[in-house]
Amino acid sequence: MSNEYEPIIIAFCCNWCSYAAADSAGTARLQYPSNVHIIRCMCSGMVHPNYVMNALTQGRADGILMCGCHIGDCHYQDGNKRAEKRAEAITLMLEDFGLEEERFRLEWISASEGPKFVEVAREMTRALKELGPNPYKT
Amino acid sequence: MKGSVLIVGAGPAGMRAAAELINQGFKVILVEEKPTIGGKMAQIDKMFPSNECSTCTILPRMLELTSNPNMTVVAFAEVKGIDGEAGDFKVKVLKKPRYVDPMKCTACTDCFPVCPVGGIPMEFNFGRGAHKAIYFYSPFPPRKALIDPEKCTYILEGKCGDKEVPPCVEVCEPEAIVFGQKPAEVEFNVGAVILATGMDEMKTEALEALGYGKLPNVLTALEYERLLSGLGPTGGVVKRDDKKEPRSIAWYVLSNPSPTGFMTAVAEAMGTIERNPDASVSVFYEDINLARDDYANFYHRAKESNINFIKTDCISVAEGEDGNVDLTYDKESFHAEMFVLVPPYAPTEGTLKLSKTLGLEVDEWGFYSKKTDDTHPIHTAKEGIFVCGSAQEPKGIDDSIIQACSAASHAAALLAPSRRTELVPPPEKDILPVKPGDEPATLAVICRCGVNIAGLLDLDELVDYTKSLPHVKHVEVTPFGCDGVAIREHLKTKDYNRLIIGGCSPKTHEDLFSLHTEMGGLNRYLMEIVNLRNHCTWVHSTDKPKATEKAKTLMRMGESRAALLESLDDIHVTVTPACLVIGGNPSGIACALKLGQAGLDVYLVDKETDLGKTKENQNRFVEKMIVELNSNDKVKVRTEAKVGRVEGFVGNFRAEIVKNSGNESIDIGSVVVATSGDMRAESDNGDFEKDLLLQRDDKNFFIGMLGILNPLDFNTDGVFKCGSARKAMGILDAIIDGEGTASRVAGIISKQELVKSPAISVVVDEKCDGCAYCIEPCPAQALTLIEYMQKDSVKKTVEANEAICRGCGVCMATCPKEGIFVRHFKPEYFEVLINSVTGSE
User: What CA–CA distance (Å, rounded) separates B600 from B528?
Assistant: First the structure.
């Protein structure tokens, strides 16, 4: 087995669309890197920027993926628009903390887009591998 | 009189009628001819004109329905006859053999790989993609396998290859396969029947003349939807059968009396451009049919996004090179790499058969639609048998939903005296009291799930690891946790106050596992599901060591959250059983009448001196309704009146009816706005539109909740809109709108109390300083800033209204001080989940 660096990714997936997409990726037996760990939340708008920033600045993860329903599809009308605003703030904070912007990603993934979830998981893993470990990791 | 309704057809209309009736206290039997529910809506990718994802919208509704104890889904079955009369029908249903006992099948799929018969084209995907002789019909519920008797060699020849015992039987742990199954006739005794058998594409010779069935890469719109769908045979990437991704795609919309055809082409063209902005996308059409403003807007949006629209009534096709299709129109030519035909619609075979069986009148096409103006579109010639959705006439999904609600209100009005007589009583439970400070004692149950979990990781290693986790007192490996045996038996010892289940997805199994948890005597909110199957073994099935490591991490995460979980009880909100309907026009009158007929109290407020005064009410339908309204003692009509202040929330509003003779204050559980006209009283009496946070568009129509499935709902819970309050419409449509709204209202006010999930927002008084950042973002508008005196100073804080909060958590993620949280999704739960990914402190 190679000792290649495996980035740790935490994916916040909203209950209604993106969590279901990750489920359907499973049903279709699509394969993605095992370093992606999904945390279920009711809405992408439920994810406090602190969760993302703490996870990164305490070295808990190399990257954070936040997934919600496409704009217009939100189960709660516009929770994902809040998530979008917070994502902008998170991106600014990353810079303040000297973290690369690739370490955080916001994606809209609908319940039928299992393949998209897989693609994003693969792509983010690839990007983080290139980037190397989170500098806050001890 | 029976308190139950049988619905034929489980597409969006049938499913919605079912949900509405259950919500109003009736038992429902939903009969579907296909092995899974969802109808055409389950097959399409996006819905027009909102471009919403169809799967995202319908899947939660399917799961909600199929897990409801008052819902019996009879899939893969056909109605053979209906005897009796309104209030007391006997419906004969023929269940087709699945050769798999759905009560035993756990959907583990162990039987699929061992079945030697493969390559069977998937009907759900119109022949694209392949399955084995034992298979799932679609990705949708009920997720139970079935066997194709025309392909299974054991059924055909009595032998599976050279084996006497078929391998599927050998691997099926729950022993669900029953080769001896025969068609079975069952009889249901119900009070009313709703026909929602839908529509289909009309496959006529006109299609053949355009190359369908003759040339490769000529397909119908519905077939194309499967290529757009992420759950389809090509995983959402449009590909031809030769695997090539077409760069130029053309649609041809055949002449169609329904606007649905043209809109389908527009939606598919948009979906294609969204996926591949470089694609050349053209829509040819014989005539354009935009019956609605929102359809027209969607079409204009499409025109701006690089889609060519070409009108022609003379198009011919020829086989081109490399599987392409050469089109000639108006002396011009066009090379398409894929050609999609949008035919007009025909009734489904089910509709045709059933109308014959039941002896019901249909139009020249076979739809239940009757153009004579003395018949209500929802009624059939037989009292107590109603029709809704596209079986009545082709229509879009939102219009089907409104008709379904209307049909539900008709059935409810008919069966009102028997409401709640056939509901399944909630099971007796003996719940262990668990207090927040109690030391966690965790039971871990790990499902083998056939080979789906056990076969794809090192189970012994996972079990040993789980045993080593803090608080875990026992690890039980079970073949299938979903049968409830292991969960209930171990919890009954009362040795455990937390449960973690390493199994499948909470999306599909949370309700079932919650039931087992409570039957075992543990509060359902003390249970945590770890999605080992969908999020681990299935997606890392080619790497056992990695799957094992990931499973250990997921169990560690689940255990850490479970240890913090708290017992929660459902929230009960009392309901005032009455409704205010604003606007005495056809839809308001229809709404009030249906509610009155259902035995519910209604106030109908209109500004005219007499309901019969306005021109739109001088119509024989409406005049008849007014007569009935006046003789219904449940309906109180207030003329020459307007509405002032409305306070409160779903279940409990107080409204001011303002008249020259003085004001009247009424208590109601729900409000319906039926008119776009101004019904606001003079300014010193308050403004109900402002009080209820209602908004209007530039044409003065009310803007409601987003979503194709919510045409009658406002964003404010308990408040609904219909008829001319929504948009301009004809009298019959307005009546159906009003009746549909009556069903939405009855879903609230026919109950003594609303029972809600406790997983909603709670303010932490010590931390909240009243900064009010959370108030504006709340999509349910459930938060209010309040001030009170504390030790001689004014303290500001926020109050969350538990009757309307939906638990989305936007407030929690907005609060800079951890001053508000969502129960069951507390910030500390997220913290431990995040921290336990790495396993360090």
Answer: 41
